[in-house]
Amino acid sequence: MIIPRLEEKKIDFLVPFVAVLTALVFGFILIILTGGDAFKGYQNLFAGMGLWPDRAQLFRLARSLENASVLALTGLSVALAFRCGLFNIGVEGQFLVGAISAAYFGILLDLPSFITIPLILVISFIHGGLWASIATYLKLKRGVHEVISTIMLNWVALNLIENYLVVGPLRVPADPGVVVPTGTHTINATAQLWSIIPAIGLKVDIIIALLATIAIYLLLFRTSLGYEIRAVGYNQEASRYSGVNVDRTMFIAMFISGGLAAISGAVLVMSVLHSYPAVFRPGYGFDGIAMALVGNTTPFGVLSAGLFFGGVRQGAAMMQLVGIHKSFADILQALAVIFVAAQGIIRYLLIKYAKPITATAVAEDV
User: Among 94, 120, 159, 344, which one has the highest count of C-beta atoms within 10 angstroms of its own C-beta?
Assistant: First the structure.
């Protein structure tokens, strides 16, 4: 009798899931080893994520979804570039470009909100895409690896924005004698994202992330351009031999990747911050790498990773009530990435231990 094996797609789905569960188990053990109350800590973690249906929990759930929307968008940015064989380590810089674009045009434009908000998102997308295209140009025309150029462009974006624009042309004039940096002006009310449920502060940022996820899924798996992006990611030379314009495909993929990262920054400004602060070190661009890896570079996998870790970030704040530092969220995220990176071991264990289970199920059916 032939014993069926786990299908490859099922393994691809299970690997990130098992990695996250393993990270939670190891996190539980780490809390115990450091003398903390792991049971109470995890209880507070899940309560802080907003998983119980009372008003206080729903408010926390809204904050979790805010985090998730930003993480999902930066994760989609990294995942799309990965699919084309590009390592976009410059998502942080593109994120900042989108944030400052939203702050500037949110101050400049005071049209009806149904015009202002989509227009700012489009402008931010274009600016982020153009910023990312610098790295693509350097790669294709000058042979500069995108890992190097995108990392360097992160610092160029950061210093250009924070050390020139925010303290220069876009600076809010401070009172005489005040030397504390203030950041930009507050964006107009018409540039602030709409609320879905005002009572708990839930806004449309999670809808934007969901729509972006669907759009990237359709692009990758339902269009000829998406096929070319994935083909180039698998094998550039074979794609070129089969007639794919590899340079054009890379430019488009990196442009969209940068645009997604910029929309993430714009969403944060338009939903939560309402201005570009004087000092801004969000780190969401680097978190996007983790979301892409944990989500297995699939659009809905990245969205799921964003939802989970967005909740963990919110829930980690409540863990402080039992003496567990809020950086525990970063530890869980790092552990999940480590176990995803070790997916060869997880795949081996899944196949090894799924065989007898599957065989038993077949015998029972017979």
Answer: 94
